[in-house]
């Protein structure tokens, strides 16, 4: 299926020169003069080699058809990351390459989308938002709550996130898994 280059997102699988690539990062550039372009960092599925491509945003790119289903994360060991299909109880093992820096978000029993091609996991898609607890941050300074400055905070999965000044240690917050940014205070 052909799609325009600007619609590519992290986790998509594209076909180039009869080889499959999984998109790691996709950015659109709109210069003041000249043609808008899309820069894409990809990993070749067959051997794990990383490749960068740049297309005009309107260029047609072949998006490969892969099986995308929900899986539950079970655990991580020396073999890799283990996932289970909730209806058939079929288990898959994803390598470190597939999971990458998203491993900090994985929690036991968490539901994720795995893209599978020929029985092998090739890409992982996390829920867009996730609730975490702030484990360490600077104390709240009275009168600073109205300002728009953010302060660094550590959350329970080990990530460093910039939060508004009114957030204190022990507060549960919602973060965007795409860019590790603060979204809101958790409603629970």
UniProtKB/TrEMBL annotation:
SUPFAM superfamilies: Nucleic acid-binding proteins, Translation proteins SH3-like domain. Residues 68-122 form the Translation elongation factor P/YeiP central domain. Pathway: Protein biosynthesis; polypeptide chain elongation. It comes from the Bacteria. InterPro entries: Elong-fact-P_C, NA-bd_OB-fold, Rib_uL2_dom2, Transl_elong_fac_P/YeiP, Transl_elong_KOW-like, Transl_elong_P/YeiP_cen, Transl_elong_P/YeiP_CS, Transl_elongation_fac_P. Keywords: Cytoplasm, Elongation factor, Protein biosynthesis. PANTHER family: ELONGATION FACTOR P, TRANSLATION ELONGATION FACTOR KOW-LIKE DOMAIN-CONTAINING PROTEIN. This is Elongation factor P. It comes from Paracoccus isoporae.
């Amino acid at each position: 299926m052909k799609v325009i280059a600007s619609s590519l997102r992290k986790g998509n699988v594209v076909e180039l020169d009869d080889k499959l690539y999984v998109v790691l990062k996709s950015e659109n550039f709109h210069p003041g003069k000249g043609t808008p372009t899309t820069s894409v960092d990809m990993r070749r599925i067959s051997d794990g080699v990383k490749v960068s491509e740049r297309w005009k945003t309107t260029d047609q790119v072949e998006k490969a058809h892969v099986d995308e289903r929900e899986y539950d994360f079970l655990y991580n060991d020396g073999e890799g990351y283990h996932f289970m299909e909730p209806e058939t109880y079929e288990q898959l093992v994803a390598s470190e390459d597939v999971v990458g820096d998203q491993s900090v978000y994985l929690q036991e029993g968490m539901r994720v989308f795995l893209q599978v091609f020929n029985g092998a996991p090739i890409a992982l898609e996390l829920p867009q938002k996730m609730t975490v607890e702030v484990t360490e941050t600077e104390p709240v300074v009275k009168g600073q709550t109205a300002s728009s400055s953010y302060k660094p905070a550590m959350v329970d999965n080990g990530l460093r996130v910039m939060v508004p000044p009114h957030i204190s240690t022990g507060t549960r917050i919602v973060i965007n898994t795409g860019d590790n940014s603060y979204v809101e205070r958790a409603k629970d």
